[in-house]
Amino acid sequence: RSHRQANLCYKSPMNKASLAETFLERAVSDVAYAERLRCRLAAKTVAAINGCHVFVGKRLPSGYGMMYLAHAPLSESGKRRTVTNYVHRIAFVLANHRMPTGEVIMHSCDNKSCVNPNHLEDGTHKQNSIDSVARNRRGPVVAKRGEDNPRAKYTAQQAMAVVALTGQGLTRKEIATRLQTTTSFVDNVRT
Description:
Elements: H1 16-29, H2 31-43, E1 45-47, E2 53-55, E3 66-71, E4 82-86, H3 87-96, E5 104-107, E6 120-123, H4 125-134, H5 156-167, H6 172-179, H7 183-190
Antiparallel strand pairs: 1-2, 3-4, 5-6
């Protein structure tokens, strides 16, 4: 089916992401299209010792593989666009014959370029975030406060001085002048 048969006219308001999902949905219903995608994906996949099927085609700087799906309908400006999608999403759809029910496809192997269907499962952003912290793919998200924050401009000692001077009844401008700082810093400490 062409994009016109899929009800995607050149004036379609769809953005590139929703077009990619539309063409990916086509792989669920169109057996011939799915087989072409499967062959193209297999041609750019290498089996690794750890069980991963590593995609060796185009990769983003983040490490995720991308693959061309189709030419999109003409844009408003009349330019032809290509539609791509993440290869792990394509592999999931081809293996499971359905669109993911979650928002993301998670890798159980922690290999961003892996397309082995046994290593892929759908989930939510929250599940993926929890999973990445549990597997030490990123450190725990902890907001560093005070001097522990690398962007801190003032010390705890300066903040204590603001509190002490406030207790003596000085105005915020007097405190800022005495400590050679700004009134906004004094306000932030006092609140």
